[in-house]
Write a structure and sequence with these properties.
- The complex is a heterotrimer of chains A (280), B (305) and C (261).
- Chain A is mainly alpha-helical.
- Chain A has eleven helices and two strands.
- Chain A is 72% helix and 3% strand.
- In chain A, a hairpin with a 2-residue loop joins strand 1 and strand 2.
- Chain B contains eleven helices and 13 strands.
- With 305 residues, chain B is α/β, with parallel strands linked by helices.
- Chain C is mainly alpha-helical.
- The chains are: A mainly alpha (280), B alpha/beta (305), C mainly alpha (261).
C-alpha cells in the first residue's frame, strides 16, 4: 500500500521518539543526511571544478617558494633559519583550507539556497535547522580539509616537513575549514545576489596578502600588527606555522580556542538564519 | 486531523490570511479554492508547519505547529506549488535522500521507492536526471517524494498549474487512487474543474477570508441555478442587450465579454432570447460550476487576477 | 566600413552602460588590487628580497615588479570584459541573438564587445599606473609608454579570449577553469614575481608562450631600462599582435556563424 493511516508511520515514529530530547525543535541528530545528499550530487557535478582547487596552493608554492624564494634565501622563524618555501608552505595550507571551505559555503550554498531551494525542501521534512546547518557546514569543511590534506602530501613530498609534529597541521586545517565554513555560511545567508558574494571574495584578497602568508607581520608597525592578529587567516596561519615548526606554546591554545568559538558562533547563527528564512 | 480557528497571517501592514476557520477530517479530500493572491499558499505553508501564524489557533493531528514543527512535518507530505526537486540528483536519489531527511533506513526505503516509482509511473526513469523529465513527470515525482514518509496528510499546492490537459488527467487519476487508500488530501487550486473533480468539500477564499464552505455540488445548488446560458453580442452591445433581457432566468450577470443568464431551463431561455430578435454571436448552455459560485460571492471571475 | 564601425560603437555603448552599473566594483577592484599587491608583495616580500639578494636586475624589487603587475592587470581586465559578456550574450541572457535580429552583424557585435573591453583596459591600466607612481615604483615620465604597452597586451589577449569564449557551448565552470588553469599560472610563471631564468628550463616555456611575459619584458625595458635586444622587443610586439589578429578574425567569424545558424 502507498500509505497507511491506521498505524503510525515509520517516519512519524522516529520523530516522536526524538521529540522527547532537548533541542528537538532544531536538531534531529541527522546532519549526515544533508552530507549524504551532497555526496550524491558530487557525482553529477563537474569534477574538474573540485580538482582545480588542489592546483592553486601548489602553483603558489612553486612560484613563491622556489621562484621568489631563490631571491630571498632563508627566513627566520622563532630563531631558526628556514627556507622561504618551508616558511610559506604552512600558510598556503591554512589559506587553502579556508578558501576550499568558503568556495562551498558561499557560492554553492547561495545557489542551493536561492536557486535550487534545497534548504526549503529539507526544512519541510522533520530535519531541523541545526541538522541542515551542521550538515552543510560539515560538507564545506570536508572540501577545505580535502584540499589541505592534498597539499600536505605535496609539501611532504617536496621535503618541506621537518618533523612528524607537522602532521598535526591536518587536524588544524580541519578546524580552520570548519570555522570558515561556519562563518561563511552565516554571511551567505544574508546575501541577496551573486554580486554581493563577489564583494565577499574581494575582502579575501587582503586577508590572503596581509596575514603573514608571504612575510612575517613583524615588518608592519605595531598597531597594524595588533589589528592583523585579530583576523581569522592570521590566526590560522600562526597555528599551522607553529605546528609546522614544532612551536608549542600558549599562543597555540589561543588559536585553537579562537577557531572553536568562531565555529560555534557561525553554527548557531546559521541555524537561526535558516529558521528565519524557511520557518518564519 | 486539522483544526484552524481565527487563523491569521500578517506581513507588516498586509493581511495575507485574515482569521479563517475550518476543519479537515480524516480521509477527507479538502479543497481551498480561490484566485491568485487569495491567501491559499500562505495557508498551505502554515499547515505544512513551515510558516508561523500571526494569531489564531491551529492544530494539526492534535499538535500545535508552533511548538512541534518537526514531529508534525514527519506526518505530512508536502507538494509545493513550484517543483523544488533536487536537480543535481537522479529520480531515485531524489526519493532516497528525501527519505533519509526523515531518518528512514535504507532497508525501509528501497522497497518503498519501488512502490512509489510504480505509483508515479516513473519506473523507466529511475536513473534519469530531473531536468530530463517532462512537467507532468516532475509533478508526479514531487508527489511521490511527498509520500516517502507515508504521510497521513498530503498537502498539494496548485498541483496541476502549468501542466497540459493530458498530464493533468494522469495526475488526477493518481490522486484519486491515493484518496482511495485513505490518505487525507488538502488541495489548493484556482481551477474549478480540479476542485469539482478532486474535492469532497472545499472552502472558497478571497482576499484572505473564507467566503463559502461546503461540498462542490451543494455550493453550486446553494449559490447558483442548475444551468447557465452564456451569450455574446460583441463587447459594445452586451450591456445594451442585457438591459432588455432582465426578465429571462433567475438572475443575470454582465461581464465585459459576455452575458451570463442563470436559469433552470437553459435551452428554453436561449430560445426566448432569439425569439425576441437578439441573435448572439455565440451561445452556450452549460451546467453551473464553481466559477459561477465564485462570481456570485465575490463579483469577480477566478481568472480576474 | 563606416556603417560597420557605427554598429560596433552601438554595441560598445551598450556594454559601457552595463559596466557603468558595476562602476563601484570596477573602481574598487581597479584601485584595490594594485594597492594590496604593492603593499604586500611589493613592499613586504620586496623587503625580504632586497635584503636577501639586493633586488633584481640592479633595481629594487618593487621597481622590478611594477611593470609586470601593470601588464597582468591589463590582461586580467581584458579577460573579464570579454569572457563574461560573451558567455552571457550567447548562453545566459542570449542578448547577442536579439542584437543580431536588428541590423547588427556578428562581426560588429564582436568588435563592439572588444572595443568596450579596450576602454575598460585603458581605464584600469591608467588607474594602476597612477598607484604604481604614487608608490614610487615607476617614473612619472613612464606614463605613456607603460600604459600603451600594457593596454596593447591586454587588448591582444582579450581578442584571443573573445574567440575562445565564442566557442563555449556550455559554461559549466569555463570561467572558473580559465581563471585557475590559465590566468593564475600565467600570472605566477611569466617572470612576474621573479626572473623567468630562475625557473627550471622545463617550466620556462610557460613564459615564452605567455603574453604576460612578453608584455612584462617590454614594460621592464621601457620602465627601468632592463637590457632587451631590439629583435627581442620586435618579436614580443609581433607575438602579441599575431595573437590579437588571430583572435579578432576568428571571433568575428565565430560570432556571425553562431548567431545565424
Amino acid at each position: 500500500m502507498i500509505t497507511s493511516t491506521v498505524a503510525v508511520s515509520a517516519a512519524a515514529a522516529i520523530a516522536e521518539r526524538r521529540a522527547r530530547r532537548p533541542g528537538a525543535s532544531i536538531f534531529a541528530g541527522r546532519a549526515h543526511a544533508p552530507i549524504m545528499r551532497n555526496a550524491y550530487a558530487l557525482r553529477t557535478t563537474n569534477a574538474l571544478t573540485f580538482l582545480t582547487g588542489f592546483v592553486e596552493p601548489v602553483i603558489f608554492l612553486v612560484a613563491f617558494g622556489y621562484g621568489v624564494g631563490g631571491l630571498i634565501g632563508s627566513v627566520e622563524v622563532n630563531g631558526v633559519e628556514v627556507s622561504y618555501a618551508a616558511f610559506i608552505a604552512p600558510a598556503l595550507l591554512a589559506s587553502s583550507a579556508m578558501s576550499g571551505a568558503l568556495m562551498d559555503a558561499t557560492f554553492n550554498v547561495f545557489f542551493k539556497m536561492h536557486y535550487m531551494r534545497i534548504y526549503q525542501t529539507m526544512m519541510s521534512t522533520s530535519l531541523g535547522s541545526f541538522d541542515v546547518a551542521l550538515g552543510e557546514i560539515g560538507w564545506a569543511m570536508l572540501r577545505g580539509a580535502a584540499y589541505a590534506v592534498g597539499f600536505t602530501v605535496v609539501v611532504g613530498l617536496a621535503g618541506l616537513l621537518t618533523s612528524w609534529w607537522a602532521l598535526l597541521m591536518i587536524p588544524a586545517a580541519v578546524l580552520i575549514a570548519f570555522a570558515f565554513a561556519s562563518i561563511g555560511m552565516t554571511i551567505t545567508s544574508y546575501m541577496r545576489s551573486f554580486h554581493q558574494l563577489n564583494w565577499l571574495n574581494f575582502f579575501l584578497l587582503p586577508l590572503f596578502l596581509f596575514s603573514g602568508t608571504f612575510f612575517p607581520i613583524t615588518l608592519y608597525p605595531e598597531w597594524l600588527q595588533s589589528i592583523i592578529m585579530v583576523t581569522p587567516l592570521w590566526q590560522a596561519i600562526a597555528m599551522t606555522r607553529s605546528l609546522a615548526f614544532g612551536i608549542f606554546d600558549g599562543a597555540l591554545v589561543v588559536h585553537v580556542a579562537y577557531f572553536l568559538v568562531l565555529a560555534a558562533v557561525g553554527l548557531v547563527l546559521t541555524s537561526r538564519r535558516l529558521e528565519a528564512l524557511f520557518l518564519r | 486531523m486539522i483544526r484552524a480557528q481565527g487563523l491569521t497571517k500578517r506581513y507588516d501592514d498586509f493581511v495575507a490570511v485574515d482569521g479563517i476557520d475550518f476543519a479537515v477530517e480524516r480521509g477527507e479530500s479538502f479543497g481551498i479554492l480561490g484566485p491568485n493572491g487569495a491567501g491559499k499558499s500562505t495557508t498551505m505553508r502554515m499547515l505544512g508547519a513551515t510558516l508561523q501564524r500571526t494569531s489564531g489557533d491551529l492544530m494539526i493531528l492534535g499538535r500545535d505547529p508552533a511548538h512541534e514543527g518537526p514531529t508534525i512535518r514527519a506526518h505530512l507530505g508536502v507538494v509545493p506549488q513550484q517543483d523544488n526537486l533536487d536537480t543535481e540528483l537522479t529520480v531515485t536519489e531524489n526519493l532516497y535522500t528525501y527519505g533519509r531527511y526523515f531518518g528512514l533506513p535504507k532497508s525501509y526505503l528501497m522497497p518503498r521507492i519501488d512502490e512509489l516509482l510504480a505509483f508515479a509511473q516513473l519506473e523507466d526513469k529511475r536513473s534519469a536526471k530531473v531536468d530530463a523529465l517532462s512537467g507532468g513527470m516532475k509533478r508526479r515525482l514531487t508527489i511521490a517524494r511527498g509520500l516517502v514518509n507515508e504521510p497521513s496528510i498530503l498537502l498539494l499546492d496548485e498541483p496541476t498549474t502549468g501542466l497540459d490537459p493530458q498530464a493533468r488527467h494522469v495526475l488526477w487519476d493518481r490522486l484519486f487512487r491515493l484518496k482511495e487508500t485513505g490518505v487525507t488530501l488538502v488541495i489548493t487550486t484556482h481551477y474549478m474543474d480540479e476542485a469539482e473533480q478532486l474535492c469532497e468539500r472545499l472552502v472558497v477564499m478571497d482576499g484572505g477570508r473564507i467566503v463559502a464552505e461546503g461540498a462542490p455540488a451543494a455550493l453550486i445548488r446553494e449559490h447558483s441555478t442548475r444551468e447557465v446560458v452564456e451569450v455574446r453580442f460583441g463587447s459594445d452591445r452586451n450591456a445594451e442587450v442585457a438591459a432588455q433581457l432582465g426578465d429571462i432566468g433567475e438572475r443575470l450577470e454582465v461581464l465585459p465579454d459576455r452575458i451570463l443568464i442563470y436559469t433552470d431551463a437553459g435551452e428554453a431561455d436561449l430560445q426566448r432570447i432569439v425569439a425576441r430578435g437578439f441573435m448572439p454571436v455565440t451561445s452556450l448552455v452549460r451546467r453551473a460550476s464553481l466559477e459561477d459560485v465564485f462570481l456570485r460571492l465575490t463579483g469577480r471571475t477566478l481568472a480576474d487576477e | 566600413m563606416r556603417g560597420s564601425w557605427r554598429g560596433a560603437t552601438r554595441v560598445a555603448e551598450y556594454r559601457l552602460r552595463n559596466m557603468w552599473k558595476w562602476r563601484n566594483s570596477i573602481i574598487a577592484f581597479g584601485l584595490g588590487n594594485p594597492v594590496l599587491y604593492l603593499a604586500s608583495v611589493g613592499l613586504g616580500v620586496g623587503l625580504l628580497v632586497d635584503t636577501g639578494s639586493g633586488g633584481v636586475d640592479g633595481v629594487p624589487y618593487l621597481v622590478f615588479l611594477a611593470p609586470a603587475l601593470l601588464a597582468a592587470a591589463a590582461i586580467q581586465g581584458g579577460q573579464d570584459e570579454v569572457t563574461f559578456p560573451t558567455i552571457a550574450g550567447f548562453i545566459w541572457e542570449k542578448l547577442f541573438f536579439a542584437m543580431r535580429a536588428t541590423s547588427l552583424t556578428g562581426g560588429q557585435i564582436a568588435d563592439g564587445v572588444l572595443l568596450a573591453a579596450a576602454l575598460r583596459v585603458v581605464f584600469t591600466t591608467a588607474v594602476y599606473w597612477l598607484v604604481l607612481a604614487l608608490f614610487g615604483a615607476v617614473e612619472w615620465t613612464s606614463a605613456l609608454p607603460l600604459i600603451t604597452v600594457s593596454t596593447y597586451a591586454g587588448l591582444c589577449w582579450a581578442a584571443l579570449m573573445l574567440a575562445v569564449a565564442a566557442n563555449v557551448k556550455n559554461e559549466d565552470g569555463f570561467l572558473a577553469f580559465t581563471w585557475r588553469l590559465v590566468i593564475m599560472p600565467m600570472f605566477l610563471f611569466s617572470g612576474t614575481f621573479f626572473p623567468l631564468s630562475t625557473l627550471p628550463l622545463a617550466l620556462q616555456w610557460i613564459g615564452w608562450i605567455s603574453p604576460l611575459w612578453h608584455a612584462t619584458q617590454l614594460g621592464r625595458w621601457l620602465s627601468y631600462g632592463m637590457p632587451l635586444e631590439p629583435w627581442q622587443a620586435a618579436l614580443s610586439v609581433a607575438y602579441l599582435l599575431a595573437m590579437g589578429v588571430v583572435g579578432v578574425v576568428v571571433a568575428r567569424r565565430r560570432f556571425e556563424r553562431r548567431l545565424t545558424s
